[in-house]
Design brief:
Blueprint (H helix, E strand, L loop, with lengths): L4 E3 L4 H10 L3 E4 L5 H7 L6 E4 L8 E3 L5 E4 L4 H6 L1 H6 L1 H8 L4 H4 L4 H5 L51 H7 L3 E6 L2 E6 L22 E7 L7 E7 L10 E10 L2 E10 L6 E2 L1 H7 L6 H12 L11 H21 L1
Parallel strand pairs: 1-3, 2-3
Antiparallel strand pairs: 4-5, 5-8, 6-7, 6-8, 9-10, 10-11, 11-12
The protein binds flavin-adenine dinucleotide and iron/sulfur cluster.
The site of flavin-adenine dinucleotide has 31 residues, from strand 2, helix 2, helix 7 and strand 8.
Length: about 325
Protein backbone atom coordinates (compact mmCIF):
# COMPACT_ATOMS: atom_id res chain seq x y z
CA UNK A 1 0.00 0.00 0.00
CA UNK A 2 1.46 3.34 -1.07
CA UNK A 3 0.56 6.23 1.22
CA UNK A 4 -0.90 9.48 -0.15
CA UNK A 5 -2.47 12.61 1.31
CA UNK A 6 -6.11 13.53 0.78
CA UNK A 7 -7.65 17.02 1.01
CA UNK A 8 -11.13 18.36 0.24
CA UNK A 9 -11.04 22.09 -0.55
CA UNK A 10 -14.29 24.04 -0.72
CA UNK A 11 -13.35 26.60 -3.39
CA UNK A 12 -11.69 26.42 -6.81
CA UNK A 13 -9.05 28.95 -5.71
CA UNK A 14 -8.12 26.79 -2.71
CA UNK A 15 -7.89 23.68 -4.93
CA UNK A 16 -5.57 25.49 -7.35
CA UNK A 17 -3.39 26.67 -4.46
CA UNK A 18 -3.06 23.14 -3.10
CA UNK A 19 -2.05 21.74 -6.45
CA UNK A 20 0.39 24.55 -7.17
CA UNK A 21 2.09 23.93 -3.82
CA UNK A 22 2.80 20.23 -4.49
CA UNK A 23 4.10 18.91 -7.81
CA UNK A 24 3.06 15.40 -6.73
CA UNK A 25 -0.61 16.34 -6.25
CA UNK A 26 -3.52 15.38 -8.56
CA UNK A 27 -7.10 16.59 -8.80
CA UNK A 28 -9.63 13.87 -8.04
CA UNK A 29 -13.08 14.17 -9.63
CA UNK A 30 -15.16 10.98 -10.05
CA UNK A 31 -11.99 8.92 -9.69
CA UNK A 32 -13.12 6.36 -12.28
CA UNK A 33 -9.88 6.72 -14.24
CA UNK A 34 -7.40 8.13 -11.73
CA UNK A 35 -8.10 5.58 -8.98
CA UNK A 36 -7.86 2.69 -11.48
CA UNK A 37 -4.46 3.99 -12.59
CA UNK A 38 -3.34 4.34 -8.97
CA UNK A 39 -4.24 0.70 -8.37
CA UNK A 40 -2.15 -0.26 -11.41
CA UNK A 41 0.79 1.85 -10.17
CA UNK A 42 0.66 4.04 -13.30
CA UNK A 43 -0.31 7.13 -11.27
CA UNK A 44 1.45 7.64 -7.93
CA UNK A 45 0.19 10.94 -6.53
CA UNK A 46 1.56 12.21 -3.21
CA UNK A 47 -1.66 14.11 -2.60
CA UNK A 48 -5.21 13.82 -3.91
CA UNK A 49 -7.13 17.10 -4.04
CA UNK A 50 -10.76 15.96 -4.06
CA UNK A 51 -12.91 18.39 -6.06
CA UNK A 52 -16.18 16.95 -4.75
CA UNK A 53 -17.06 19.96 -2.56
CA UNK A 54 -16.48 22.57 -5.27
CA UNK A 55 -19.59 24.30 -6.62
CA UNK A 56 -18.87 23.24 -10.22
CA UNK A 57 -21.73 20.85 -10.90
CA UNK A 58 -24.28 23.21 -12.48
CA UNK A 59 -25.44 23.19 -16.11
CA UNK A 60 -26.92 26.56 -17.08
CA UNK A 61 -27.28 29.20 -19.76
CA UNK A 62 -24.12 30.96 -21.00
CA UNK A 63 -24.19 34.72 -21.61
CA UNK A 64 -24.33 34.43 -25.41
CA UNK A 65 -27.33 32.06 -25.50
CA UNK A 66 -25.19 28.92 -25.33
CA UNK A 67 -24.77 26.47 -22.46
CA UNK A 68 -22.26 26.47 -19.59
CA UNK A 69 -21.42 23.07 -18.15
CA UNK A 70 -19.72 22.88 -14.74
CA UNK A 71 -16.53 20.80 -14.72
CA UNK A 72 -18.05 18.45 -12.15
CA UNK A 73 -21.36 17.90 -13.98
CA UNK A 74 -21.85 14.14 -14.07
CA UNK A 75 -21.87 12.46 -17.50
CA UNK A 76 -25.32 10.97 -16.75
CA UNK A 77 -26.81 14.35 -15.72
CA UNK A 78 -25.38 16.08 -18.78
CA UNK A 79 -26.68 13.39 -21.17
CA UNK A 80 -30.17 13.66 -19.65
CA UNK A 81 -30.34 17.47 -19.54
CA UNK A 82 -33.34 18.56 -21.68
CA UNK A 83 -31.41 21.54 -23.12
CA UNK A 84 -28.60 19.21 -24.24
CA UNK A 85 -30.97 16.63 -25.67
CA UNK A 86 -32.84 19.28 -27.66
CA UNK A 87 -30.16 21.72 -28.81
CA UNK A 88 -27.02 19.52 -28.78
CA UNK A 89 -28.13 15.92 -29.41
CA UNK A 90 -24.61 14.99 -30.56
CA UNK A 91 -23.41 15.60 -27.01
CA UNK A 92 -26.10 13.55 -25.35
CA UNK A 93 -25.56 10.69 -27.82
CA UNK A 94 -21.77 10.74 -27.33
CA UNK A 95 -22.11 10.56 -23.55
CA UNK A 96 -24.60 7.70 -23.71
CA UNK A 97 -22.26 5.82 -26.05
CA UNK A 98 -19.53 5.92 -23.38
CA UNK A 99 -18.73 3.57 -20.50
CA UNK A 100 -21.72 2.18 -18.55
CA UNK A 101 -24.68 3.62 -16.63
CA UNK A 102 -22.88 3.16 -13.31
CA UNK A 103 -19.71 4.89 -14.53
CA UNK A 104 -21.66 7.78 -16.09
CA UNK A 105 -23.33 8.38 -12.72
CA UNK A 106 -19.91 9.16 -11.24
CA UNK A 107 -17.72 10.36 -14.12
CA UNK A 108 -17.46 14.13 -14.58
CA UNK A 109 -17.12 16.45 -17.58
CA UNK A 110 -13.53 17.49 -16.84
CA UNK A 111 -12.44 14.02 -15.73
CA UNK A 112 -13.75 12.55 -18.95
CA UNK A 113 -11.82 15.10 -21.03
CA UNK A 114 -8.58 14.37 -19.16
CA UNK A 115 -8.85 10.59 -18.88
CA UNK A 116 -5.71 8.77 -20.02
CA UNK A 117 -5.20 6.47 -22.98
CA UNK A 118 -6.26 2.81 -22.82
CA UNK A 119 -3.09 1.60 -24.58
CA UNK A 120 -2.29 -1.75 -22.93
CA UNK A 121 1.41 -0.97 -22.55
CA UNK A 122 0.68 2.34 -20.86
CA UNK A 123 -1.39 0.51 -18.25
CA UNK A 124 1.25 -2.17 -17.59
CA UNK A 125 4.13 -0.86 -15.49
CA UNK A 126 6.23 -3.93 -16.35
CA UNK A 127 6.39 -2.74 -20.00
CA UNK A 128 8.30 0.14 -21.57
CA UNK A 129 6.17 3.10 -22.71
CA UNK A 130 7.30 6.56 -23.85
CA UNK A 131 4.15 8.15 -22.47
CA UNK A 132 4.54 6.69 -18.98
CA UNK A 133 8.35 6.71 -18.88
CA UNK A 134 9.81 8.98 -21.57
CA UNK A 135 12.66 7.48 -23.55
CA UNK A 136 11.81 3.81 -22.85
CA UNK A 137 10.26 3.10 -26.26
CA UNK A 138 6.89 2.34 -27.80
CA UNK A 139 6.20 -1.42 -27.90
CA UNK A 140 2.72 -0.80 -29.34
CA UNK A 141 4.11 0.05 -32.78
CA UNK A 142 5.26 -3.53 -33.34
CA UNK A 143 2.96 -5.12 -30.76
CA UNK A 144 -0.75 -4.85 -30.01
CA UNK A 145 -2.11 -1.75 -31.74
CA UNK A 146 -5.44 -2.83 -33.20
CA UNK A 147 -7.22 -0.03 -31.27
CA UNK A 148 -4.54 2.63 -31.68
CA UNK A 149 -4.02 5.71 -33.82
CA UNK A 150 -4.00 6.10 -37.60
CA UNK A 151 -3.89 9.92 -37.65
CA UNK A 152 -1.40 12.34 -36.08
CA UNK A 153 0.72 9.61 -34.43
CA UNK A 154 4.51 9.62 -34.25
CA UNK A 155 7.29 7.05 -34.04
CA UNK A 156 7.27 7.76 -30.28
CA UNK A 157 3.60 7.02 -29.58
CA UNK A 158 0.50 5.76 -31.39
CA UNK A 159 -1.99 6.04 -28.52
CA UNK A 160 -5.56 7.23 -29.00
CA UNK A 161 -7.62 9.45 -26.72
CA UNK A 162 -10.55 7.43 -25.37
CA UNK A 163 -13.15 10.14 -24.64
CA UNK A 164 -16.44 10.20 -26.57
CA UNK A 165 -17.50 13.45 -24.93
CA UNK A 166 -14.39 15.25 -26.24
CA UNK A 167 -15.26 14.32 -29.83
CA UNK A 168 -18.74 15.83 -29.56
CA UNK A 169 -17.33 18.96 -27.89
CA UNK A 170 -14.80 19.35 -30.73
CA UNK A 171 -17.62 19.30 -33.31
CA UNK A 172 -19.59 21.81 -31.21
CA UNK A 173 -16.72 24.35 -31.05
CA UNK A 174 -16.77 24.19 -27.26
CA UNK A 175 -14.48 26.25 -25.04
CA UNK A 176 -12.80 25.09 -21.84
CA UNK A 177 -12.64 27.50 -18.87
CA UNK A 178 -9.52 27.21 -16.73
CA UNK A 179 -8.36 28.60 -13.41
CA UNK A 180 -4.67 28.47 -12.54
CA UNK A 181 -2.16 30.03 -10.16
CA UNK A 182 -1.87 32.98 -12.58
CA UNK A 183 -5.62 33.50 -13.04
CA UNK A 184 -8.41 32.44 -15.38
CA UNK A 185 -8.26 31.82 -19.13
CA UNK A 186 -10.11 29.91 -21.85
CA UNK A 187 -9.00 27.42 -24.48
CA UNK A 188 -10.86 26.02 -27.49
CA UNK A 189 -11.48 22.35 -26.72
CA UNK A 190 -9.74 21.48 -30.00
CA UNK A 191 -6.53 22.94 -28.50
CA UNK A 192 -6.83 21.14 -25.16
CA UNK A 193 -5.13 17.87 -26.18
CA UNK A 194 -1.78 17.53 -27.92
CA UNK A 195 -0.51 15.17 -30.59
CA UNK A 196 2.42 13.06 -29.36
CA UNK A 197 5.34 14.28 -31.50
CA UNK A 198 8.52 13.50 -29.56
CA UNK A 199 6.86 14.19 -26.16
CA UNK A 200 3.94 11.76 -25.77
CA UNK A 201 4.11 12.33 -22.01
CA UNK A 202 2.71 15.83 -22.59
CA UNK A 203 -0.95 15.13 -23.30
CA UNK A 204 -2.71 18.47 -22.89
CA UNK A 205 -2.09 22.20 -22.75
CA UNK A 206 -3.05 22.85 -19.13
CA UNK A 207 -0.39 24.75 -17.23
CA UNK A 208 0.86 23.26 -13.92
CA UNK A 209 -1.92 23.41 -11.33
CA UNK A 210 -4.63 24.57 -13.75
CA UNK A 211 -8.14 23.41 -12.96
CA UNK A 212 -10.91 23.01 -15.54
CA UNK A 213 -13.85 24.90 -14.08
CA UNK A 214 -16.38 24.67 -16.93
CA UNK A 215 -17.00 23.94 -20.60
CA UNK A 216 -19.12 26.34 -22.65
CA UNK A 217 -21.04 25.62 -25.83
CA UNK A 218 -21.91 28.36 -28.31
CA UNK A 219 -25.61 28.64 -29.21
CA UNK A 220 -26.56 26.14 -31.92
CA UNK A 221 -26.55 27.57 -35.46
CA UNK A 222 -30.08 28.09 -36.86
CA UNK A 223 -31.25 24.92 -38.60
CA UNK A 224 -28.35 22.84 -37.26
CA UNK A 225 -28.78 19.10 -36.82
CA UNK A 226 -26.23 16.98 -35.04
CA UNK A 227 -25.46 13.34 -34.28
CA UNK A 228 -22.80 10.96 -32.92
CA UNK A 229 -22.06 7.47 -34.14
CA UNK A 230 -19.55 5.05 -32.63
CA UNK A 231 -18.22 1.68 -33.82
CA UNK A 232 -16.93 -0.65 -31.09
CA UNK A 233 -16.46 -4.32 -30.34
CA UNK A 234 -19.55 -4.55 -28.08
CA UNK A 235 -22.77 -2.57 -28.00
CA UNK A 236 -21.86 -1.04 -24.63
CA UNK A 237 -18.99 -0.70 -22.17
CA UNK A 238 -16.36 -0.48 -24.92
CA UNK A 239 -14.15 2.27 -26.26
CA UNK A 240 -14.45 3.48 -29.85
CA UNK A 241 -12.68 1.74 -32.69
CA UNK A 242 -13.79 4.83 -34.56
CA UNK A 243 -16.49 7.42 -33.99
CA UNK A 244 -17.86 10.53 -35.67
CA UNK A 245 -19.55 13.64 -34.31
CA UNK A 246 -21.18 15.87 -36.90
CA UNK A 247 -23.14 19.12 -36.97
CA UNK A 248 -24.78 20.02 -40.28
CA UNK A 249 -26.83 22.91 -41.68
CA UNK A 250 -28.38 22.32 -45.11
CA UNK A 251 -29.92 25.16 -47.14
CA UNK A 252 -31.49 24.56 -50.56
CA UNK A 253 -29.93 21.09 -50.75
CA UNK A 254 -26.41 22.42 -50.20
CA UNK A 255 -24.14 22.36 -47.17
CA UNK A 256 -24.28 25.77 -45.53
CA UNK A 257 -22.28 24.86 -42.41
CA UNK A 258 -20.62 21.66 -41.23
CA UNK A 259 -18.48 20.49 -38.32
CA UNK A 260 -17.01 16.98 -38.23
CA UNK A 261 -14.81 15.37 -35.58
CA UNK A 262 -13.46 11.81 -35.51
CA UNK A 263 -12.81 9.82 -32.33
CA UNK A 264 -10.68 6.70 -31.82
CA UNK A 265 -8.26 7.68 -34.58
CA UNK A 266 -5.74 9.97 -32.84
CA UNK A 267 -4.36 11.20 -29.53
CA UNK A 268 -6.98 13.95 -29.64
CA UNK A 269 -10.43 14.43 -31.12
CA UNK A 270 -9.67 14.87 -34.82
CA UNK A 271 -11.44 17.91 -36.31
CA UNK A 272 -11.87 17.08 -39.99
CA UNK A 273 -11.07 20.54 -41.34
CA UNK A 274 -10.14 19.31 -44.84
CA UNK A 275 -13.51 17.57 -45.15
CA UNK A 276 -15.36 20.58 -43.73
CA UNK A 277 -13.72 22.95 -46.26
CA UNK A 278 -14.57 20.60 -49.15
CA UNK A 279 -18.20 20.34 -48.11
CA UNK A 280 -18.99 24.04 -47.78
CA UNK A 281 -21.48 24.85 -50.58
CA UNK A 282 -21.39 21.27 -51.94
CA UNK A 283 -24.55 19.28 -52.65
CA UNK A 284 -25.70 17.72 -49.37
CA UNK A 285 -25.57 14.16 -50.69
CA UNK A 286 -23.73 10.91 -50.13
CA UNK A 287 -21.20 11.40 -52.95
CA UNK A 288 -19.99 14.71 -51.45
CA UNK A 289 -19.79 13.24 -47.97
CA UNK A 290 -17.82 10.23 -49.21
CA UNK A 291 -15.33 12.36 -51.18
CA UNK A 292 -14.81 14.70 -48.21
CA UNK A 293 -14.27 11.85 -45.73
CA UNK A 294 -11.82 10.17 -48.11
CA UNK A 295 -9.88 13.42 -48.53
CA UNK A 296 -9.63 13.83 -44.75
CA UNK A 297 -8.56 10.23 -44.19
CA UNK A 298 -5.92 10.34 -46.95
CA UNK A 299 -3.60 11.52 -44.16
CA UNK A 300 -4.08 8.23 -42.27
CA UNK A 301 -0.96 6.10 -41.68
CA UNK A 302 -2.21 2.78 -40.36
CA UNK A 303 0.07 0.24 -38.70
CA UNK A 304 0.09 -3.53 -39.37
CA UNK A 305 -3.21 -4.28 -37.58
CA UNK A 306 -5.34 -1.13 -37.51
CA UNK A 307 -6.04 -0.39 -41.18
CA UNK A 308 -9.69 -1.33 -40.60
CA UNK A 309 -10.17 2.00 -38.85
CA UNK A 310 -9.89 3.99 -42.07
CA UNK A 311 -12.89 2.55 -43.99
CA UNK A 312 -14.76 2.28 -40.69
CA UNK A 313 -14.34 6.01 -40.00
CA UNK A 314 -15.19 6.89 -43.60
CA UNK A 315 -18.37 4.84 -43.56
CA UNK A 316 -19.43 6.26 -40.20
CA UNK A 317 -18.96 9.80 -41.47
CA UNK A 318 -20.90 9.15 -44.69
CA UNK A 319 -23.72 7.53 -42.72
CA UNK A 320 -23.99 10.27 -40.08
CA UNK A 321 -23.87 13.12 -42.59
CA UNK A 322 -26.33 11.41 -44.97
CA UNK A 323 -28.78 10.84 -42.10
CA UNK A 324 -28.49 14.47 -41.00
CA UNK A 325 -28.99 15.72 -44.58
CA UNK A 326 -32.06 13.53 -44.97
CA UNK A 327 -33.50 14.78 -41.68
CA UNK A 328 -32.93 18.37 -42.84
CA UNK A 329 -35.28 18.04 -45.84
CA UNK A 330 -38.06 16.21 -43.98
C1 LIG B 1 -14.65 0.01 -17.97
C2 LIG B 1 -14.66 1.43 -18.44
C3 LIG B 1 -15.19 1.73 -19.67
C4 LIG B 1 -15.20 3.06 -20.11
N1 LIG B 1 -15.71 3.36 -21.36
C5 LIG B 1 -15.66 4.65 -21.81
C6 LIG B 1 -16.13 5.00 -23.10
O1 LIG B 1 -16.60 4.15 -23.86
N2 LIG B 1 -16.08 6.30 -23.48
C7 LIG B 1 -15.56 7.28 -22.67
O2 LIG B 1 -15.52 8.44 -23.06
N3 LIG B 1 -15.09 6.97 -21.45
C8 LIG B 1 -15.14 5.70 -21.01
N4 LIG B 1 -14.64 5.38 -19.78
C9 LIG B 1 -13.91 6.39 -19.05
C10 LIG B 1 -14.72 7.13 -18.08
O3 LIG B 1 -15.70 7.85 -18.77
C11 LIG B 1 -13.72 8.05 -17.39
O4 LIG B 1 -13.03 7.23 -16.47
C12 LIG B 1 -14.37 9.19 -16.69
O5 LIG B 1 -15.06 10.01 -17.60
C13 LIG B 1 -13.34 10.01 -15.95
O6 LIG B 1 -14.02 10.99 -15.18
P1 LIG B 1 -13.77 11.13 -13.63
O7 LIG B 1 -14.56 12.28 -13.18
O8 LIG B 1 -14.01 9.84 -12.92
O9 LIG B 1 -12.22 11.48 -13.66
P2 LIG B 1 -11.04 11.17 -12.62
O10 LIG B 1 -10.66 9.74 -12.72
O11 LIG B 1 -11.36 11.72 -11.29
O12 LIG B 1 -9.90 12.09 -13.27
C14 LIG B 1 -9.35 11.84 -14.52
C15 LIG B 1 -8.20 12.82 -14.76
O13 LIG B 1 -8.71 14.15 -14.90
C16 LIG B 1 -8.09 15.03 -13.94
N5 LIG B 1 -9.13 15.98 -13.55
C17 LIG B 1 -10.38 15.68 -13.13
N6 LIG B 1 -11.11 16.80 -12.97
C18 LIG B 1 -10.30 17.84 -13.29
C19 LIG B 1 -10.48 19.25 -13.35
N7 LIG B 1 -11.65 19.83 -13.04
N8 LIG B 1 -9.44 20.03 -13.75
C20 LIG B 1 -8.25 19.45 -14.08
N9 LIG B 1 -8.02 18.12 -14.03
C21 LIG B 1 -9.04 17.33 -13.66
C22 LIG B 1 -7.61 14.11 -12.82
O14 LIG B 1 -6.53 14.67 -12.10
C23 LIG B 1 -7.21 12.87 -13.60
O15 LIG B 1 -5.92 13.05 -14.14
C24 LIG B 1 -14.65 4.08 -19.30
C25 LIG B 1 -14.12 3.78 -18.04
C26 LIG B 1 -14.11 2.46 -17.60
C27 LIG B 1 -13.54 2.17 -16.25
S1 LIG C 1 1.42 3.94 -28.00
FE1 LIG C 1 2.02 5.53 -26.54
S2 LIG C 1 1.02 4.86 -24.68
FE2 LIG C 1 1.15 3.04 -26.00
S3 LIG C 1 3.12 2.04 -25.61
FE3 LIG C 1 3.48 3.48 -27.23
S4 LIG C 1 4.21 5.30 -26.11
FE4 LIG C 1 3.13 4.05 -24.63
Amino acid sequence: MREFGYLRPTSAAEAVQLLAADGGARYLAGGTNLVDLMKLGVERPRLLVDLGRLPLRDIGPAGDGGLRIGALARNADLAADPRVRTAYPVLSQALLAGASGQLRNVATTAGNLLQRTRCLYFQDTAKPCNKRRPGTGCPAREGVHRDLAVLGASEHCVATHPSDLAVALAALDATVELLGPDGARTLPVTDLHRLPGDRPDLEHRLLPGELITAVTLPPPAPGARSAYRKARDRASYAFALASVAAVLVVREARVERVRIAFGGLAAKPWRARTAEAMLLGAPAEEASFRAAAEAELAAARPLRDNGHKVPLARNLAVRVLSDLALASVR
